[in-house]
Amino acid sequence: MIRLLGLQPTYMPGDTLEFEYRVTNIDDAAIIAVESSVCWVTEGKGTEDLGVHYFQRLSGNSLAAIDWSIAQRVACPLPSSPLSYEGKLLKISWCVRVRFFLSDGTELMAQQPFYLGTITREV
Amino acid sequence: MSLFRKPDIHPPPSRNSNPFATRFFTPGTIPFYFDRVPPVQSIDQPSLCETLLEQQAIFEALLAQILSGEFRSQGELWDPRDSKLIPRDRSNRTKRCSCFAIVGPHGTGKSTLLAQLEHAILESYSHRSCQSLFLNSSSSSRQSLARALRLLKTSSICLIDGFEQLPKWGQTLCVWTAKSLHRKLIATSHVLPKGFVPLWNTQMSPEIERYVIGQLLNNVPAVESEDDLEQRSSNFKNRELLELLLKSEEWRISRAKHRENLRETLFDMYDWWGNRVDEILGNR
Q1: Does pTM surpass 0.90?
Q2: Distinct helix (H) and strand (E) counts, chain B
């Protein structure tokens, strides 16, 4: 099980997003890669868009040095745009995501949405 | 084996999410629904395909057919060009096949089934190299053909979505390449390409429409209080919304306009939901 810790519901542009993730009930030896990312996606009618603002993949030697009994920290500055938006035709959502890839082919994922900026709604 | 393709790239749906947003029905998001049993393989109860297990059985039979490369010529075969079932080769022989096609009109689930096959192949048979390619009209036919041939040279199982984008001579070249390199080629097309055997013919039916809408309405978050939630199952709430939508004038007009193409109707229903969401959820 993956738990995301310390995330705020709202951040302002330029803020540093900091969070920790902790994994339990997984054999350390079974972990072959870990990806953490901060991304935005659009949601609406027709073609949708996706942007990856921050991405880190740990595998091989960098993975072997990690003590999984303690929470792992991630920090990244947030950009000035696109701001979270909730309209009728389009929504823009930000999200933090952590994925664990295990040796048996299993993939575990935890994700948590957050707002960038003061949420703007269609009026 | 999972019927789903991959984890959703989106954050979880929010209370304000429109259940008809593209993210909820993009290929690979909703499992393909088999509304009939294919004539190409045997299933113990051929008249039933309603439960998840039966859906899984049909799907796995199609997958096994692709991977074994055996195509049993018995029973009847759907001919999309004439829109009718025709008797197969009555000799009941098993043929070796390299190229399988998912055939059907726009918006009937061809890409959905192909995405599901890709996921299953990657998940269960990852030792075989499997790659997919989406062809659309934005690339020239020559570029599309070059990409398709490159795929056939590098992968043992190739999935091509939009095979009809290739010129006829290019399609023939792909079939010839697949056979000579002993590749498996699975493609979607509006008509059965020459050299392919039909894997599945997608067509729209009221049963499939209800299934797809029901799946999409599962994304509507609960708005009731906790007390209400305890008393009302999620299925009941969804059925209520489902009936409301299927009785709406917008649904009737859109289905008449787009006929087989359910995808276009789902786009229309995005607007229907957006315009009536307060009224719909306020009544619940």
Answers
A1: no
A2: 9, 9
